[in-house]
Task: structure prediction
Amino acid sequence: METLDPDLLRTFLAFVDGGSLARAASAIGRSPSAVTAQMQRLEEIVGEPLLSPQGRGRSLTPAGEDLVGHARRILAVHTEAWLALKGARAGGRIAIGTTQDFADHGLPDLLRAFAGSHPRVRIELRVGRSLELGSALQAGQLDLAITMRHAASPDEAALISEPMLWLCSEKGLATRQEMVPLALLDPYCGFREAALNALDAAGRRYRLAAGSASLAGLRTAVNAGIALTPRTRRFAHSGIVEASPDLDLPPLPIADFAIRLGREAGRPARDLAELLGSGLALPS
Result:
């Protein structure tokens, strides 16, 4: 009996969570052809087709649907064992910085698992914007930071790539408008620049309906139906969904995030960076 390689299962779940092979490739940092090859290898091991053609994409077969729960449990046990071995004797302090997107979605469960397996490590968490967190990392105030990536940096331990999406209230816009109403963070913001560049390139007129220094302000404006905002799927909850294709909005680029380590980061911080690099790449 062949074993189920955790790397293959991570790719499979990246497809399940992302909804397409292209998004799976982006999430795990591999090429689409490499993802296809991994899925074919997993199907060989299982002995059953896991994906079937559906329109221009793929959907899960009954065997694929059965594998989802098993894959999540296998990876959970794999992570638990890895953490237990790493954390048995670790001590000290880790100062972590993260953007609000990850603080709301993905990071809490991973920090809980890490804290449970590293009882002698004190964790301090700081939530802020990417530029602020990058400066704090450079100043030695943080051991580890999750920031939006604008250029390659030698302190990067892992990368997370996720599609940018146009998001709006699940009830739609409150009124029909000729110009695209936007809710954007104050400059500088990578999502803001990407949205404005995409709209300009498409010749779409727009207006700033809401500006904010925090994601809480954007969420209020979007939930009220007065604006759209560009974010990743992590922001799509609590009444916020992907915008309807009927709005004919231009495509947005991939958002790249870097998990970065401070110059004085110790072994526990490096272990946590490794955990986040694999765990955050699989949005649930």
